[in-house]
Amino acid sequence: MDVSNLKRRGLMYVLSSPSGAGKSTIARALLKQNEDLTVSVSATTRQRRGGEVTGKDYHFVDIPTFNQMVENKNMLEYAKVFDNYYGTPRQPVEEALSQGKDVIFDIDWQGTQQLAEMARDDLVTVFILPPSHEELEKRLRNRALDTRETEEQIQGRMSKASSEMSHYSEYDYVIINKDIESSISKAQTILDAERMRRLRLTGTSEFVRGLMGGL
After folding, report:
1. DSSP string computed for the chain
2. Which domains does the chain have, with CATH numbers?
3. How far is CA 68 from the centre of its chain?
4. Comparing 69 with 2, which gets the higher pLDDT?
């Protein structure tokens, strides 16, 4: 039986969490493990940091350019975070999905809500929670040693984390990131299961009819 006609539309795999809960680490691991998974590169109005590469880490644009992209409906979602704008360019994502590739997103709850309004059938959402308030603060303080964030900035992230975590119930799945390797495994399991959803497969009806005809 020829299975070459069995195809799958790609999915949008969203990981959200408060800063320091581990979503970026999980996302990087999934990208390394899955050749058919690509990352959505956001556009942002914030300044490029040392070591960041335009087009790989972010598309760095000025505010007028960003606003023009929004006005032209070239953004799937966008939000203002810490006085800067972030958004997802539409064209690369739609091209990847049509080719059967999955796209991973590292975005907040606001962006996730916008994606759900536009393309819920293509969307799989996962919220990453820290194991405790104390652990989250510890991770943020350790990270601040590298990023040189001030005490005020750390407290700002902790305050924002409370608001962000209140939206966990809007997501399809929740992972409590106590152990990073276990969390990566859970995120991979979710991705594998969602790839097999019947509604994402095309050509299945013809395949099954062929099976039935051979009985």
Report:
1. ---TT-EE---EEEEE--TTSSHHHHHHHHHHH-TTEEE---EE-SPPPTT--BTTTBEE--HHHHHHHHHTT-EEEEEEETTEEEEEEHHHHHHHHHTT-EEEEE--HHHHHHHHHHHGGGEEEEEEE-S-HHHHHHHHHHHHHHHT--HHHHHHHHHHHHHHHTTGGGSSEEEE-SSHHHHHHHHHHHHHHHHT-GGGEESHHHHHHHHHHT-
2. 7-40+100-197 (3.40.50.300)
3. 24
4. 69
In the chain, % of residues over pLDDT 90: 51
Give the C-alpha separation, 107 to 211, whole Å: 42
Query: What does the pLDDT look like over 122-164, one tens digit per residue?
Result: 999 999 998 887 887 777 777 666 666 777 777 767 777 888 8
Averaged pLDDT, 106-117? 90
CA pair distance 125, 173, nearest whole angstrom: 6
At residue 187, does pLDDT exceed 60? yes
Give the chain's largest Cα–Cα span: 70
Which residue, among 51, 18, 54, has the nearest Cα to 140 in the 3D structure? 18
CB atoms inside a 10 Å sphere around CB 121: 10
